[in-house]
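Hi, here's the filled form for the chain we discussed.

Project: internal
Contact: R.S.
Residues: 98
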Amino acid sequence: MERIREVVTGSVDLDYVRQKTEAGWKLVAMEWRREIAGDEAEQPIIVEDIPCGLRVASDSSRLEEDPQERAVLVRRPGPDQRAAHTMLTIGLPVALWA
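And the returned structure, exactly as it came back:
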């Protein structure tokens, strides 16, 4: 499946929608916004790295454990593996590379 996101700087007319539809695209979402009198500046979107051993859940609302990544993180034998296991047990992110 191919997806694109276009930022709209002006108004969208019916011809544009028709062109996209004829090219095989299907409109799946619309986002609206407006200025509110007295509203402070728009809050910035905070972007953070996802900790090792976690992934974004399918509903995109939270993080969940990634069993495959967590298994890979502790496969390296030796003292690093024991340290990684301890860190994962108490919930700290760990990354080990063989």
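Let me know if anything looks off before we file it.
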